[in-house]
Amino acid sequence: MLARVWSASIIGIDAVKVGVEVDVSGGLPGIVILGLPDSAIQESKERVKATLKNAGFAFPMRKIVINLTPADLRKEGPAFDLPISVGILAASEQVNADLLGDFLFLGEVSLDGSLRPVAGVLPIAATAKKMGITGLVVPIDNAQEAAVVEGLTVYGCKDIADVVDLLNNPKKYQPVKLNQTVETSQSTSLNLADLQDVKGQAHARRALEIAAAGGHNLIFVGPPGSGKTMLARRLSGILPPLSFPESLEVTRIHSVAGLLKNRGSLVRERPFRSPHHSASGPSLVGGGTFPRPGEISLSHRGVLFLDELTEFKRDVLEFLRQPLEDGFVTISRTKQSVTFPAQFTLVASTNPCPCGYYGDTIQGCTCSPRQREQYWAKLSGPLMDRIDLQVAVNRLKPEEITQQPTGEASKSVAERVEKAREKAVIRFQKEDLQCNAQMQSRHLQKWCELDDASRNLLEAAIRKLGLSARASDRILKVARTIADLAGDENLKPQHVAEAIQYRTIDRMQ
Predict the structure, then answer these.
(1) What are the counts of helices (DSSP H) followed by strands (DSSP E) for the chain?
(2) Where does the pLDDT of residue 242 fall: very low under 50, low under 70, confident under 90, or very high at 90 and above?
(3) Is 252 left (phi over 0), alpha (psi -120 to 50) or beta?
């Protein structure tokens, strides 16, 4: 007998509907899986066989042919365990097959019959709705994630016996409803570090506020112990909350990456990713035989923090150039090309030289000019052009170290940041932009018009610092954000002057 069950496969952060056709017929007992399955799907033959026997069902000792359609699409992962199990039961007439066309099945099975959660349920749920599938059957731990998609009936099952009972007696079961209480409690559970804990460093604190308000990339340069990492980790506390569309977008990425297990439904906090300096290029941009998002995509709509930037390999850092400019990354393989979103705020920190004390007023530098030149050679000019705010962070004076922190709390700074972001949202309501850092040349001509004094100031900075056209555009974007924080509609010389001050590395070289 032939049975057809619907499932889905992930491509990038989207999903493709997959048909699981199961034929049980005469012949020597055995299972054959067709349709470009990966090793995890091939292993499901023995896994499903043991699962059905241990769950109390009869496994047909006949020839079983399983075809995954479309046949030219590679399929991966254990999520096909459940649809294969249901297909075998339906083809052997152990379950009512009348409702199979109304449901899409996902889930990994354990040998005792229980269902284990899988990655990528949210994008699959969204695809199921578009395809006209009215119901989704998933492991209980994935139910809240799938329930985010409105207009889709979601059933969360603990084991294969629950799935069979659902198909045989659907009126006994109620669909899962999104638990708003859990969602809200999780969104406020993160204890973010507060700017109030930072002593001194008024210039760096101001740069953090500008970076948050405009979505600008930022690098702190200073000696060891000056507070670079401490400052960078407090950026998340002053960023505005994710909107619902942004939250949904971030959740899709984390779902594909398998980071949502036991985390509830939606990601409500802006991501903060901090990979080690030994990270490879594919780990940053994504990759693999079946491409998966890397750190830059996992930090989409959030912060990517690269501590000790000059310790990263130069070729790895060069991978960041295109995503920083375009806001996405495309990974090409022989048979497919996948695009992942990557609109993140880059925050980095580094020492000014190998010993760490070049320019320090307390301890002298022991590095030669040649050593400093080689040290900075790890950071290419095009990469540094894409970093809007380059800030020197000096070590605290003894009297500053011993005093109690008296800085402004993150909550107050966040209020100003949100007001500045609201100005940008109003400004870009007819454009596909979320913040000032995303503006292109045509936007700068419209919203960053300079008066004569401001233009003369910028031209002088370009000549003196040898700035590129891209770096000068970055200055205008920062000036626009500074004006928004000040509540000014037009750019003024003081806004441009302050933006120029945030080119520390240009002045050092």
Answers:
(1) 22, 18
(2) very high
(3) alpha
What residue spans of 141-238 are helical by DSSP H? 143-146, 160-168, 180-187, 202-214, 228-232
- Residue type for 160, please? I
Cβ–Cβ under 8 Å, residues 508 and 352: yes
Q: Tell me which DSSP letter residue 357 carries.
A: -
Length of the chain: 509
Reading the block at residue 398, the tokens are 């003894």
Average pLDDT, the chain: 90
- DSSP symbols for 419-487: HHHHHHHHHTTTTT-SSGGG--HHHHHHH----HHHHHHHHHHHHHHT--HHHHHHHHHHHHHHHHHHT
- From the CB of residue 313, how many other CB atoms can be counted at a distance below 10 Å? 14
Rounded (10°) CA dihedral 498, 499, 502, 506: -120
- To the nearest 10°, the Cα dihedral for 406, 411, 412, 418? 150
Q: Which amino acid is at 333?
A: R
Can you give the pLDDT at residue 507? 46
Phi, psi of 208 (to 5 degrees): -60, -40
Summarize pLDDT for 334-358 with one digit per residue, the tens: 777 899 999 999 999 999 999 999 9
HSE (side-chain half, CA atoms, 13 Å) at 3: 23
Task: Kindly give the residue spans of alpha helices, DSSP state H, lying in 25-159.
Answer: 39-54, 81-91, 121-130, 143-146
Q: Is pLDDT of 21 > 60?
A: yes
The answer to whether 131 and 36 have CB atoms below 8 angstroms apart is no
Q: How far apart are CA 481 and CA 314, in angstroms?
A: 30
H or E stretch at 443: helix 441-447
